[in-house]
């Protein structure tokens, strides 16, 4: 694919331009290591370094255009360059234009919230497919441009704008009508502008609790960044809101779109509400109600919180397709859960093992009381907290686990450049009822931590492995190591003599 720069230049709102006549653009990169012949290189300011330091490398790799913000000491000769006010914002607009604004030709459903975004997105995608629609999906866990979903190749949930628009473009080429885009607060934030030029038709809000305050600065900013999805909806669009969340009124005020509410707590002011939710480690039974319908269903999904996710998905599908809610609810009984989300590991061992991605206080508050109800023995939990991310949540995670778990084993999640033991000590501050060495263990090496958990687990106990879920790596100070929590758990069980 290629385009003349002259057909794209206006969307950049250039402050200064140089050599921009008859330049051909063949792709877009924000990392010099990804630049190929004819690419536009966006030099982005970063938290660790500045993209402008890599302009030389981008030129050597064949870049035909450099876009940057702020001052530049060595302006390269013999190449086109454009100075803009905000390089990330410019990259978003440029990416949308380069790929012919694919989001305007698809019906786009954005899903935001602290917890449940990926599952809800996946349920919407599955429901749409079972209703006969061809659709794509971009989530933390998986990704599809029209065919079967494959694991997300990136470590980002909301990827950078060039990836998003390229994926939406591929979806159109493959004949998709609808796309489901998991929309994180990072992606929606004007500071990253990753989703700034995606034309959403419907937005789903799952819930909001404490997370990513290292990035947003305050809960108010975090909430406001999430609300960006709702501000951006057109008046003919649909805003699907969890009525049970404290921020539902705020979210509703932020949009001119039609508002639809769901409630898992049985609030009949909602458009769709649930009652008699009974979960077990096998699935979830509940009754779904609207003003004109009541339907008892069984979801093959573990975790009562899935009632919220499924109701959100049902309403989103109804709004985007116009199909009857009855038909959509019927299809929800065949939904599959995401890899690493309440995934039971069964290798014949006498204790239970569940792998889940829960890594926020909100997710802990939902998960622990649920599993406690079905566990006759002890709860042994293994988890950590990400380095260089929200530090305030660490003791909070510890105190929730302290209330419900009998034994806590703290371990690496993604330490990054932080001191590994320091992170574990921060979490341990919240575990006031436990004593180190007795029912609290700090074992940074995640494999050793899981081995320890399995080693002490007895018949009837439940071992909860939290925080990694589907993720395929652990980010350490000196690089990334491959990881697959479910496989590691199975391998350790196999070494103990338990095999499927
Ligand atoms: C903390 C954060 O947001 N980091 C993002 C940021 O990285 P950074 O600021 O560290 O970049 P940097 O290392 O300083 O480099 C600056 C620039 O120089 C470039 N560079 C660097 C080296 C080189 O040799 N050549 C080169 O061109 C880099 O590609 C970058 O564009 O800019 C990068 C490029 O745009 C992003 O990929 C990166 O996201 C990383 C992967 C990340 O982990 N982001 C997380 C926090 C995130 O966005 N998470 C949310 C999930 C939220 C949720 O769970 O709800 C998400 O949507 O994924």
What this model shows, in words?
- Helices cover 31% and strands 23% of the residues.
- It has three domains: 3-98, MurE/MurF, N-terminal domain (Udp-n-acetylmuramoylalanyl-d-glutamate--2,6- Diaminopimelate Ligase, Chain: A, domain 1), CATH 3.40.1390.10; 102-332, UDP-N-acetylmuramoyl-L-alanine:D-glutamate ligase; 343-495, Mur ligase, C-terminal domain (Protein-Tyrosine Phosphatase, Chain A).
- α2 runs parallel beside α4 (161-173) and α12 packs across α13.
- An eleven-stranded mixed beta sheet has the order 11-10-9-12-8-13-14-15-16-17-18, sandwiched between helices. It has a six-stranded mixed beta sheet with strand order 19-20-24-21-22-23, sandwiched between helices.
- It has 15 helices and 26 strands.
- The protein is of the alpha/beta class.
- The model has no long low-confidence stretch (mean pLDDT 94).
- Bound molecules: ligand UAG.
- The site of ligand UAG has 21 residues, from α5.
- Ligand UAG is lined by residues 30-33, 44, 46-49, 51, 54, 155-158, 160, 184-187, 212.
- Keywords: ATP-binding, Cell cycle, Cell division, Cell shape, Cell wall biogenesis/degradation, Cytoplasm, Ligase, Magnesium, Nucleotide-binding, Peptidoglycan synthesis.
- Its cofactor is Mg(2+).
């Amino acid at each position: 694919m290629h385009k003349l720069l002259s057909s794209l230049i206006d969307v950049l709102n250039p402050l200064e331009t140089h050599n921009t006549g008859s330049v051909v653009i063949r792709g877009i990169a924000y990392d010099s290591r990804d630049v190929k012949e004819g690419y536009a290189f966006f030099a982005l300011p970063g938290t660790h370094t500045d993209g402008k330091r890599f302009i030389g490398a981008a030129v050597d790799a064949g870049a035909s255009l450099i876009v940057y913000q702020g001052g530049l000491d060595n302006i390269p000769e013999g190449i086109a360059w454009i100075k803009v006010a905000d390089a990330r914002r410019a990259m978003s607009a440029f990416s949308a234009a380069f790929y012919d604004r694919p989001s305007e030709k698809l019906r786009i459903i954005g899903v935001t919230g602290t917890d449940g975004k990926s599952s809800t997105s996946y349920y919407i995608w599955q429901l749409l497919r079972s209703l006969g629609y061809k659709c794509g999906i971009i989530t933390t866990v998986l990704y599809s441009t029209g065919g079967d979903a494959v694991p997300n190749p990136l470590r980002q949930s909301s990827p950078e704008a060039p990836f998003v628009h390229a994926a939406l473009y591929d979806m159109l080429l493959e004949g998709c009508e609808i796309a489901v885009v998991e929309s994180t607060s990072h992606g929606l934030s004007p500071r990253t502008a990753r989703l700034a030029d995606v034309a959403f038709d419907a937005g789903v809000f799952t819930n909001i609790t404490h997370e990513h305050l290292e990035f947003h600065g305050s809960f108010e900013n975090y909430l406001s960044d999430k609300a960006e999805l709702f501000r951006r909806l057109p008046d003919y669009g649909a805003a699907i809101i969890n009525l049970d969340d404290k921020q539902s009124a705020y979210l509703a005020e932020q949009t001119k779109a039609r508002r639809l509410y769901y409630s898992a707590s049985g609030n009949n002011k909602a458009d769709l509400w649930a009652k008699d939710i009974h979960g077990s480690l096998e699935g979830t039974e509940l009754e779904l109600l609207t003003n004109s319908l009541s339907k008892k269903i069984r979801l093959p999904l573990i975790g009562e919180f899935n009632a919220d996710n499924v109701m959100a998905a049902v309403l989103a599908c109804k709004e985007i397709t116009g199909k009857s809610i009855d038909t959509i609810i019927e299809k929800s009984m065949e939904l599959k859960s995401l890899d690493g989300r309440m995934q039971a590991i069964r290798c014949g061992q006498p204790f239970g093992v569940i792998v889940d991605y829960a890594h926020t206080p909100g997710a802990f508050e939902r998960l622990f009381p649920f599993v406690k109800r079905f566990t006759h023995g002890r709860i042994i939990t293994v988890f950590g907290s990400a380095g260089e991310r929200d530090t305030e949540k660490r003791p909070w995670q510890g105190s929730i686990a302290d209330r419900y778990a009998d034994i806590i084993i703290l371990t690496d999640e993604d330490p990054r450049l932080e001191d590994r033991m320091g992170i574990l000590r921060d979490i341990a501050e919240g575990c006031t009822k436990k004593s180190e060495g007795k029912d609290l263990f700090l074992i940074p090496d995640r494999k050793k931590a899981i081995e320890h958990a399995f080693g002490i687990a007895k018949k009837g106990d439940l071992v909860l492995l939290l925080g990694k879920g589907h993720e395929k790596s652990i980010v350490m100070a000196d690089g990334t190591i491959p990881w697959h929590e479910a496989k590691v758990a199975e391998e350790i069980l196999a070494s103990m003599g338990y095999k499927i």
